[in-house]
Amino acid sequence: MSQHLLELSAAQAVAAIRAGELDAAELFELYRSRAAADPLNAFTWVAEDAAVAAPAGAPLAGVPAAVKDLFCTEGVPSQSGSRILEGYRPPYTATVVAKLAKAGAPLLAKTNQDEFAMGSSNENSAYGPVLNPWDRARVPGGSSGGSAAAVAAGLAPWALGTDTGGSIRQPAAFCGIVGLKPTYGACSRYGMIAFASSLDQAGPLTRDVTDAALLLRHMVGRDQNDSTSLELPEEIRLPSRGDLKGVRLGVPQELTGTAGGIDPGVLASFEAALAQAQALGASVEPCTLPHAPHALSAYYIIAPAEASANLARFDGVRYGLRVAGDSDLDTMYSRTRAQGFGAEVKRRIMLGTYALSSGYYDAYYGTAQRVRTRISQDFQSAFAEVDFIVTPTAPTTAFELGAKSHDPLAMYLNDVCTVPMSLAGIPAISIPCGLSDGLPVGLQLAGPAFSENALLDAAYALEQALAFDGRSAWAGGGAPA
Amino acid sequence: MLERQQVDHVARLARLELSDSEADTMAVELSKILDHIEAIRALDLEGVQPTSHVVDLVNALRADVPQRSLTPQQALAQAPEPTDAGFGVPSPGQGAE
To answer: Could you say which of A55, A207, A364, A435 has the lowest number of CB atoms within 10 Å?
Structure first.
């Protein structure tokens, strides 16, 4: 019976519950017990009790969601993967999580992540690395690695993540699932423990494109508690497109060559998927994003700069860790932060503080902001010629634990294909497009701001043709071998 | 190349106590990252406006209607040193600037 329930996508489970064929409480308990076993260290907290029954007629019908640790959840630990917030139980719930609960998707679990969402491998969590269900010797990607691994392994029906420079899309690619970063502002950031405020955006990690559309539909909307949130021009629809006739796909030369560090196996899988898109009627043409090769540099100035300001709040005064002894106030700040933050967070605070410091501000931060303008203009020019940009989501498949953790720059290069879209604030989705040496490869589709419905439709059509089967990862969610 | 002295200065600005060996490592790692980043300073960006934010919204204010906020007890519940009057902290002492 439970294997049968596991076969259902989240959207199928919603439909089954609404049709009276499935008991929401039974589904919750199946996933709750699978998550509680946690063979991948994907969770930092799992519900102990059955969920409060979803309101009658709730559109998500009680199909529970796993939520990245950095979303504040009232009374439930919300630690953002950091020692400095160990045991922190917020007095309020993030808007997106509250919206999902109201729509009938209760909280199943909180997922492990890189500390403050800084990382591409989930090895920066203070609570230990998450393992990839396809191969437990490998990373799940990051920073939403727990959410991606949980969905891929069948430990959660669907999950919430956040994406600042690729933190939804890259782990989705590494774990063989779907991950969508919406247009900046589509989802309220209220209650998301901030990393880089001009880039952070919540989004779904799901088994398939339909699930992503369904979850996103209940996440979006203007929120008076986030002045950068906005109303989308139209409701998110469930995708239904069967072909790609008339769709123009642009392949940016800057992000798709082996010269750009893309692994040959990834490139082969990507190109096979493009051939499928053509068979569905799409045109595939080269395009150019001239400033894309500089996106990573701009990102690694802007994001740490914003982070250094956002993380100033962790000072041992209002919540979280305090390391005091008999020291004075200033020493208490410095020692609390020294013991509470991990190495990568310290590195980025240092980088950001340096980039914003007197005498360097314009040379670094000002320059990066101008590059950001150029990158947005590049996308605008490209979208005058094509409907969507397509790239591999990440330059490699999931790498081995420890392979890059001692080389920060090598780790940053993981984000080369995802960061440009983040800087431009445009929506992008990663879908699994095949395997390379037995590991999933992600294909990224990006569209203009507010093109979510068209993007989901195109991704859906391609998904049907590619017919990727991720079920072999469910075994990775079973008891440790 | 970032000098050790600069690292100490930035760590001070960031209120981050670094051990000697941490500061040395930081100097090497940050220098490597900055070397990579430096390339953008060679771009011709004359006349390009900076983007601080991609959403073109101004004065996105909510209606000025009173609403419930956290009680003092809720706000103090997670504090390392709650007091009747608020958040307790060590004395500013000699280290204050």
So the answer is: A55
Domain that holds residue B14: 4-41
CA distance A317 to chain B (A): 6
CATH of the domain at B25: 1.10.20.60
User: Model ipTM?
Assistant: 0.94
Please tell me which residue of chain A has the smallest CA distance to B95.
Answer: A330
Please state, in angstroms and rounded to a whole number, the distance separating the CA atoms of residues A54 and A60.
Answer: 8
CATH class of A2-243+453-477: alpha beta
pLDDT tens sequence for chain A (481 residues) = 577 899 999 999 999 999 999 999 999 999 999 999 999 999 999 999 887 888 889 999 999 999 999 999 999 999 999 999 999 999 999 999 999 999 999 999 999 999 999 999 999 999 999 999 999 999 999 999 999 999 999 999 999 999 999 999 999 999 999 999 999 999 999 999 999 999 999 999 999 999 999 999 999 999 999 999 999 999 999 999 999 999 999 999 999 876 668 999 999 999 999 999 999 999 999 999 999 999 999 999 999 999 999 999 999 999 999 998 778 999 999 999 999 999 999 999 999 999 999 888 999 999 999 999 999 999 999 999 999 999 999 999 999 999 998 899 889 999 999 999 999 999 999 999 999 999 999 999 999 999 999 999 999 999 999 999 999 898 877 654 4
Question: CA–CA separation, A150 vs A136, rounded Å?
Answer: 13
What is the tally of structural domains in chain B?
A: 1
Mapped onto helix, strand or coil, the DSSP state of residue B9 is helix
In a domain, B97, yes or no: no
Task: Tell me which residue in A330, A367, A425 faces B40 most closely, judged by beta carbons.
Answer: A367
Q: Hey, where are the domains in chain A?
A: 2-243+453-477
Instruction: Judge whether A301 is closer than 8 Å to chain B, CB to CB.
Output: yes
- Is residue B49 situated within a structural domain? no
Angle between helices A295-310 and A367-383 in degrees, nearest 10? 130
Contact call for B90 and A301, based on CB within 8 A: no
Question: Are A329 and B75 a contacting pair at CB < 8 A?
Answer: no
Tell whether B31 is covered by a domain. yes
pTM for the model: 0.96
